[in-house]
Amino acid sequence: MSHSPAWPGKILALLRAGNPAAAIAQIRVAPSVRDLCALEKQLAAAQLAGKWRDVDAAVTESLQALSAPRLHRSP
């Protein structure tokens, strides 16, 4: 799957619009570990890390799921 540089920005836009539930839904179907890492960096840069506990948990859980060797999503 190709890397989508716009994906983290879209998630940040959802959070800034006050829709963390939609952001969490998108995080759970994240395209790749690379995108999740980029999202983490952008959240930290925007000083939004830790503002939504559920969002932080979704990012952590998705990173763990996508990083596991046997758990992956088919294209």
Short précis:
By secondary structure, this protein is an all-alpha fold.
Distance between the termini: 7 Å
Helix content: 55-70%
Strand tally, please?
Answer: 0
* SS class: mainly alpha
Assembly form of the protein: single chain
Q: H/E order of the elements?
A: HHHH
Rounded Rg: 12 Å
Provide an overview of this structure.
The chain is mainly α and 75 residues long. The protein has helices at 7-16, 20-28, 33-45, 53-67. The mean pLDDT is 85.
Features:
75 residues; mainly alpha; 63% helix; globular
Topology:
Elements: H1 7-16, H2 20-28, H3 33-45, H4 53-67
Helix pairs in contact: 1-2, 1-3, 2-4, 3-4
